[in-house]
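Hi D.,

Good news: the full-assembly prediction came through. Inputs first.
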Amino acid sequence: MSHNTFGHLFRVTTWGESHGPALGCVVDGCPPGLKLTEADLQVWLDRRRPGGGKFVTQRQEPDQVRILSGVFEDERTDGRVTTGTPISLMIENVDQRSKDYSEIARAFRPGHADYAYFAKYGVRDYRGGGRSSARETAARVAAGGVARKVLGEGVKIRAALVQIGPHAIDRDRWDWDETLRNPFWCPDAVMAQQWESHLETVRKAGSSTGAVVEVEATGLPAGWGAPLYGKLDAEMASALMSINAAKGVEIGEGFAAAALSGEDNADEMRAGNDGPIFLSNHAGGVLGGISTGQPLVARVAFKPTSSILTPRRTLTESGAEVELRTKGRHDPCVGIRAAPVVEAMTACVLADAFLRHRAQIGG
Amino acid sequence: MSHNTFGHLFRVTTWGESHGPALGCVVDGCPPGLKLTEADLQVWLDRRRPGGGKFVTQRQEPDQVRILSGVFEDERTDGRVTTGTPISLMIENVDQRSKDYSEIARAFRPGHADYAYFAKYGVRDYRGGGRSSARETAARVAAGGVARKVLGEGVKIRAALVQIGPHAIDRDRWDWDETLRNPFWCPDAVMAQQWESHLETVRKAGSSTGAVVEVEATGLPAGWGAPLYGKLDAEMASALMSINAAKGVEIGEGFAAAALSGEDNADEMRAGNDGPIFLSNHAGGVLGGISTGQPLVARVAFKPTSSILTPRRTLTESGAEVELRTKGRHDPCVGIRAAPVVEAMTACVLADAFLRHRAQIGG
Amino acid sequence: MSHNTFGHLFRVTTWGESHGPALGCVVDGCPPGLKLTEADLQVWLDRRRPGGGKFVTQRQEPDQVRILSGVFEDERTDGRVTTGTPISLMIENVDQRSKDYSEIARAFRPGHADYAYFAKYGVRDYRGGGRSSARETAARVAAGGVARKVLGEGVKIRAALVQIGPHAIDRDRWDWDETLRNPFWCPDAVMAQQWESHLETVRKAGSSTGAVVEVEATGLPAGWGAPLYGKLDAEMASALMSINAAKGVEIGEGFAAAALSGEDNADEMRAGNDGPIFLSNHAGGVLGGISTGQPLVARVAFKPTSSILTPRRTLTESGAEVELRTKGRHDPCVGIRAAPVVEAMTACVLADAFLRHRAQIGG
Amino acid sequence: MSHNTFGHLFRVTTWGESHGPALGCVVDGCPPGLKLTEADLQVWLDRRRPGGGKFVTQRQEPDQVRILSGVFEDERTDGRVTTGTPISLMIENVDQRSKDYSEIARAFRPGHADYAYFAKYGVRDYRGGGRSSARETAARVAAGGVARKVLGEGVKIRAALVQIGPHAIDRDRWDWDETLRNPFWCPDAVMAQQWESHLETVRKAGSSTGAVVEVEATGLPAGWGAPLYGKLDAEMASALMSINAAKGVEIGEGFAAAALSGEDNADEMRAGNDGPIFLSNHAGGVLGGISTGQPLVARVAFKPTSSILTPRRTLTESGAEVELRTKGRHDPCVGIRAAPVVEAMTACVLADAFLRHRAQIGG
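Then the structure:
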């Protein structure tokens, strides 16, 4: 992984700041001949788009994606197809509300990337967080749309929130369809209601709360991922940890595996009609860094955003001690918007793993 | 990250299997002029070496590391120094006990990489796990020794076990010195005793148990790590997840951050004599993917090893259903041996971050 | 080097086709705090722009470059400066003349990339050469403008044509100023006139001719470039050979070195006030892949373009034998336009070498 | 390309110095299931081995290669096969003649990498040239042997010397079999005799001379190589220019293309039974950076070695002006030994191109 590029063969390079004219990405290494239109990508961007509810930022962005290169249509291709050359995707920034940044221009929000960027670069675009803004994740979601095309219909990737603040779902009530019915990607209808009242409290207090997102990918074959440093779970860990506000990643049992015995953690195998059947999936679909054919399961923990109304002690760029409260648009729980981003990053990791596998093994 | 290489500028390529003649690594990109002898590396290998207690594998390996290239001595250098060319490190395998692998040669250990390797490559070196063996981590530890030289005395990296099985330490009893007094890298003297009896039970049952390792790096300046896909925490996540048996990685508060409010999670800042002082370290030393100057804190969860005496249902390579129990040398808790590996990977990530930072920013 | 990215630390990813809506690049890894405006880049694009004479393609493109990210201005920066984040540059395609591509849509121009693209990808954007068009080099030139900022005023890079068709310059008449006075980047005033009449003949015949471009970089210190596979000359070779129509690259004496004796080829050294003085520069400024502090000198050979009026035997996509002549806009000598591209690629290679050197060695 | 690694998917990392205990390489990304023994590699090393004649260095090295990892044999594999894990190859240095390096330890040989290494690293292993020694190419040749296995029997790679000093072969007398009959890899029996007397004169004078090597690869399909920065010819240029003493690389017509007209340079196509037939091969098998299915043809120019008996003016490390003549073993023409290295690098580039192509396109 390079600074602003991820992936090895399916490579995504993103660019853009919160308040610049646009943001976007270049997707390189995509196989040729795949049907790809802007509408194919827009569907994923629309799922990510803020403004759908009162619990995500009120910034209004249409997030219309444009494909600037890498697809072509003539009478023989029956629609626009990828050509194998780089796919440039661009999303214009529209709602760059002219607001007063004079305060955070000089003071660092505690818990925010403000200070770290300044310490590293000596200069920072503080408007809306600049490069560290979650706006950048729109480019990831667009790239994820291309990755899904590479993976094809057989691989299904979907994410759900399993915890907001201290409130975790009841896995016995898990229903994937439910994630489409509430604004929290919550698979537990009962918990969705509890989250709503929790978030209402948080929002009114000008506070924020963390969350945990779980992603599942089904339909991938055994064999993807390559030991030792390109392990599928290591690639997932890197990709998911690179999402704004992520603080932890786990695969399968994850941290719970530490408390298990070898007997309980082993996924026993029986012979099935189409290859091995695993009797459990503690591994989360990865052994030795290679996919087993079972569903890939990962979770990501997101911290609460640092933009809150309660004054916090901090410093200015010149080192003066001040108290700072972040006014303006707030996101009480950034983890909510992260769900489609987690899906997109998973799609990109898997598309990359597929191409790498095909390179070494063929088929 | 490539398959068997990690790092961008401080690059480590490892090779070798459990039962081949040797294993090793090539460290490329090391700055010139650093004092480096085999003894400098041996000290870390000796800490990792199994055989020190009855709770780690009984394989007896001297793990003598040889430096085959990249250092030079003449009358002007006052001892052996790095030359800026690749440093090749080799460790011979000595105790490749001639044992009967006929059973696991054909059957997959449930929960082990056996099946995944076979599904991917169609061929596997099953002796001792082949490439998936924890023997490979000796090469990581050797490379970590070089990384520590790059970082210098100012950066201090140390790891401790904070949980074995269901038994977590009491952080109020944390004493780093204690980690050197017990065979478990346990910073809590009381818990060390409890772990001993727990592991004795596990060992006698031919079972195994998981663990959580925590690593802390102090002395690194603010500014290391580069957004967005080379974030310091993303690099840590990838590096730590690539260690054998790792199933989860978290930074700072990690998964606990999901339950926090923005007020509680914010690390407030005050002016100190030598730059900012943070009043807490929920972030674990990283904001926006860049180091803040606070201690870098990460944790890794390790699953229990799949090599256990209790028979488990599994398949042979030809698809027949069998029951398998793993005879021979056992590691009741692979997490114990992982502590120096976690340190080494952290050192490598930081050395790489240092060089990358210096490239872009200078100084 | 990845497919559409070059450089290791100063990384340029280009995208776009001849007849798409736009083309551009993302420059990643640029140090922060460098003054950078669109005008700084436009000056180089204007030098490359076709339409300046009758001996380059008549396509009229303003080639206005836009900076979409990576620079920021506020009251403290005294103008727009780089922030260390990715710099996205975009150039819109304006003069995509609606022409009839029906013929080359089906037949492969002999000597052109048409067939190879089709054989590889199974689909190709044949309009104006698609991705293989020299339009793409506008993105390289823009990136080169950023690279020059990284290198600073001390490093001077300039290119000249030293041969067109069979007509080579007389090096005794070399005058760099002359390259700015004629449309051929010719340092030899006498030869410039001869080239003019030669090219007039070529143009009238609907033919084309090859050329050799020489580039010189002065002001770089000794020490840049890193053996063995990142040698400065190997990086130059790769970068220059990636330019459209390039067929050969040489450093210093180049192919002529094969005929020299060791005595004649050795660049003897004497002590100067500011370090060593070399008494000759057969090496072209590179020894062992590392810069010596002497001027870096390289040459690139460009073949004649395959778009000519004389009918040539070829095949259609379906394999039928046809004769093809390329109508429309022609470039009698693509090497002429290549000069600023050669400069730009050299700038990018050196900026990358500078950052890589600083990473490993510091300073 | 990283400093000491080349290739993207078929990756070779080399290490070692002229007078260290050993040298070697790690080959990563090799497909599994390929038969591979040490004898398969030794055959190529034996071809490269100095000592075969009086016109190459008299250093006596058995150059026995050992495979330390990445291959496995059991009853099912019918011989040793690659496992898909890293292949570590090691060659011990045996004839490190204890000679007096006191002179070149302090003075830089003009035209040699001595000064550049010292300027960059501040320290250098001057014994036999250290890392810059041609001994390192043994590792390339070993890796090339693995690459040939990846390519299979269908791809044939062979090199010949076409020029030594000012004496170029007559291409009308080209006979590949002849290259195996004389010690100069000369395909022209008449010229081989002329070279012998020329080299005898050079050797007696303690002088040296340059050379040009041509390599041809047949049997590769159309479609390998990927625009724009991973063009097959750009990869070849980089790989060949990285060989010791290389100063120029050209593809097909190369520099001669500059003098051609578009009509003469175009390779016309006719329909054949097995796809297109080209009526000429000015392109050298590459168009737009992609193989055409024609033979890949490249040439590399090698300078004369700087180790000569005639005193040359130079500096010591401390800046004193001295005269230096290089005593001891000499190589009157390093280009002779380069032929198998050129073959090996070509094999590695093609193996990499094959895997990259398979990744993106499949099949």
